[in-house]
UniProtKB/TrEMBL annotation:
Family: Belongs to the UPF0337 (CsbD) family.
SUPFAM superfamilies named among the record's database cross-references: Hypothetical protein YjbJ
InterPro entries in UniProt: CsbD, YjbJ_sf
Pfam families documented for this protein: CsbD
Domain CsbD-like: 4-56
Domain of life from the UniProt record: Bacteria
Source species of the chain: Luteibacter yeojuensis
Protein name per UniProt: CsbD family protein
Region named Disordered: 1-61
Length: 61
C-alpha cells in the first residue's frame, strides 16, 4: 500500500476530530482547520490509491 494512503487516512481522522472539537467548543478557527486537514487527507489518500493502481497495472502488463 502506498504511503500516501496511510498518511492521508491519518490526516482525515485527525482533521475530523479537530473539526468536531471546534464545533463542540464553538471554536470556528479550529473547526475550519479541521475541515482543511480532513480534505487534504482525502486528496492525499486518493493520490496513494492512484499510485497503487498504477503499480498494479505495471505488474500485470
Amino acid at each position: 500500500m502506498d504511503k500516501n494512503r496511510t498518511e492521508g487516512m491519518k490526516h482525515e481522522v485527525k482533521g475530523s476530530l479537530k473539526e468536531a472539537a471546534g464545533k463542540m467548543t464553538g471554536n470556528h478557527a479550529k473547526e475550519a482547520a479541521g475541515k482543511i486537514e480532513k480534505n487534504v487527507g482525502k486528496a492525499q489518500r486518493e493520490v496513494g490509491k492512484a499510485a497503487d493502481r498504477a503499480r498494479d497495472n505495471d505488474r500485470h502488463h
